[in-house]
């Protein structure tokens, strides 16, 4: 089998969430490309495997491969690869909560992409910068960047980037409590994810869509959406999505008055988030625990948990989340 065929096979396995199998094929392709001194194939293999490791949450391996990509690109004058590797390093810094460093790397990568007139890369960088802007509380900038990502994706034909932008627009509107608009964006993302058979992203979209559905009072639809998310994410080993689904399961249980069940879901979500090093999600879970304790009448514990969540959000530079918690704290102080 030629290296090109192996790369196509690995990409197909990755799209369907068969990550361990994809990693094995990438390893075989790497040996073939290195043995044949095929620089073009080697670059594509390292690019594919580094992105795969990021999807798996294996960030140390992903960073090592990203730095290898950067070195190969710089030594061989491959400006496109340098830009893409820089973007991946920014993504990894973002996952680690180093938002300022991530933002600087994203801007460097975006400048390179614009010089290359690479709409595909510019689209994904706008997507990533939109996430950082949203965390910093700059909602207008985030919305503009997500829409720019969709426009760039239309020009490049990359529907995968567009569906991620729709997912993020859905989350942004949820933050703004624009529930109907949030639901519409998630529905659009789900439609695209089904069309391109992106199962990992489809699982995330189903999990995220539970939030607007809960707030719109469509609890049965929310529960069904979480079931679909869990059915997709669990076989993939996507702990981040399973943790998110567990957090929203806790909300449903709390609304139903089943506080013990809500506690169990939050404990499971916290365990998964801690194992994956998901600091932002861990802090959201802590906020959910605070709300549960408040409804249980354990007011001092609730306030302490919410203050700790606020401290953690501050450490992550999550300005919008801080403002949201401040509103709750102000309400609780007068209760």
UniProtKB/TrEMBL annotation:
What Gene Ontology cellular component terms go with this record? cytoplasm
User: Which positions are tagged coiled coil?
Assistant: 92-119
Q: Which UniProt keywords apply?
A: Coiled coil, Cytoplasm, Repeat, TPR repeat
Q: Which SUPFAM superfamilies would you find in this protein's record?
A: TPR-like
Checking InterPro entries in the record gives: Bac_ResReg_Asp_Phosphatase, TPR-like_helical_dom_sf, TPR_rpt
Please state the span of the N-terminal signal peptide per the UniProt entry. Answer: none
Q: Where is it mainly found?
A: cytoplasm
Where are the membrane-spanning stretches? none
The protein here is known as MalT-like TPR region domain-containing protein
Q: Which organism is it from?
A: uncultured Gemmatimonadota bacterium
